[in-house]
Protein 1
Amino acid sequence: MALDLDAIIAEIADGMAKVEHRGRVADYIPELAKVDPAYFGMAVATADGRMLCGGHATTPFSIQSISKVFALTLALGKVGDQLWNRVGREPSGNAFNSIVQLEHEQGIPRNPFINAGAIVVADVNLGGHQPRVAIGELLRFVRYLSGDDGIAINEAVAASETMTGFRNMALANYMRAFGNIHHAPELVLGSYFHQCAIEMDCRQLALAGRYLMLDGRHPGGGRVVSPRRARRINALMLTCGHYDASGDFAFRVGIPGKSGVGGGILAIVPGRASIAVWSPGLNASGNSQLGTRALEELAQRTGWSVFSPPPD
Ligand code: GLN
């Protein structure tokens, strides 16, 4: 029986609008603390070219750590597998901004999706240029992926994090001491904070993720990455995309996903769908509480999972 995706999404969005306990909005970046936790949005781009939306799917939000997926894709394009000499590919089992593992592991972050790993990726993407050049490149890339030139950076969010990002400063300086950051830490962080401050809505984000559902192809023609690279990025999203809650996300939802403290999640069903959800309230691991719940419900109702044969 054909899935009535429209109805499923509308029902999930309706259900989420009524939930009372919505988690806590991130407040360590003051600008993000201002966002109303009542928002919930969802968008699904399907492999056969449809776009289905529910709730606040066209309200822009700060993509934060979801940007790490696009930054990683760019860095792999620049330095290929050499990236893995500077950053690992294992789940960390620690919070997104943890510093403890770095000392034991000589300044090599566990994976590109924890903050330390993403700061190394930002260092690679800087490539001797000024932050605005690297940021311009990332922004152009995201616009190309989603086919939408309206995507922009929220400067107030970037400034807010620059004022308060002491932990990220510590991570960058600490890795610099091990020789794993090659540029001045303030330049790397300037670039990193701006990439996190990119704003997109669910619709744009689901469109931007399509190359990961299409084995690396751009739906408009041509290739973004090789099939192998797309699969590897999906593998990293599944194992590391939700920090120390990645196992729980795989258990509950069963598809690759990357979260951000703005409350967004990009989730990929290979060959089927690129999904974006957004609800600003976070759980204790810094992942969207209702976003995770909505994806769990969507996966259950569609049968989408990377752990079972595709449903008919
Ligand atoms: N900009 C945020 C930070 O570095 C991103 C964290 C996140 O989204 N998990 O703290």
Note: The pocket of glutamine is lined by residues 64-65, 96-97, 115, 161, 168, 196, 260-261, 286 (CB under 6 Å).
Protein 2
Amino acid sequence: MKSIVPVALGAHSYDIHVGAGVLAEAPTLLATLSRGPLRVVTDAHVAKLHSDAIAALDAAPIVLEPGEGAKSFAGLENLIRALLRRDIGRDGLIVAFGGGVIGDLTGLAAGMLKRGVAFVQVPTTLLAQVDSSIGGKTAINVPEGKNLVGLFHQPQLVIADTTLLTTLPQRELLAGYAEVVKYGALGDLEFFAWLEAHGAEALAGDDAALSHAVAQSCRMKAAIVSRDPLETGERALLNLGHTFGHALEAAVGFSGRLLHGEGVAIGMALAFALSVRLGLCPRADEERLVAHLKAVGLPSAIGDIAGWRPDAMTLLAHMRHDKKARAGRIAFVLVRGLGQAFVANDVEEDKVLEVLA
Ligand code: GLY
């Protein structure tokens, strides 16, 4: 099943092509975007897994070392200079072929190079297909925090071929699925109910179910980004589960012990628990969310992080340093129920501590 999801952003509008096999159309689609040179940027891991698909686009791709380390000033300089040596100019087209690291770094390099070169996202992880490849957020990390240096640079096209996900380790697929659940939990109860019925089929690799899950997630993200491209309001809802999740990731040292999506899954359960404690959300909705996370095998409680026990004050300190905190007030995405999220900046810290305890 193939879908084309438009992201309506005026002069910066673009389409997301979703489905099994859509990558076969890439050479034709890319030819319409630029007559200048095209360069694929990928990492060694993806280059090995998808060598034929990459070769069909570019015989001499730029292949980076895999891993989050590439999202640094050194990694950015390295990539920008590599693109310059390959004569990529304002008429060129840069294709980010990989997961979130490649997309974030390449998007930033494209946005800065010669004051902005066009780029296309070909996301190869579930997390990148449903979230990071859409909406133009690009960034690198600095010692002071993750994603603190970046800019908005929208891609010209996103090609989310679900067959690329068949090579993903199950744990990574599941972690990406947490972001899919997020869309249902934040704004689409019907989609959440569909996930309860068919999410396991999507995770087992059923083409139709996986394509629907990715396409519906893309539709939701596209709609929110279209209304609030620069995150001055509604886009912040996409951070459901992220304030708690980022604090957990930071507390475990951004290690393989907790993948980003796993942190988001636990973070969503905590955001629902906090909403229940504040009298905003029925307990039955929290239980329904947790039941679905558990049913598919995602963690849903801090105790699910193997071999690690948190210190609530440390987690709270990480939250105070969150990018979204304003004047020392931590921003939370809370819920009035499944599918009804809103942003709150006035949550008492002792209520947060009670939930963490
Ligand atoms: N990943 C959240 C956003 O794009 O706004």
Note: The CA atoms of residues 333 and 343 lie 4 Å apart.
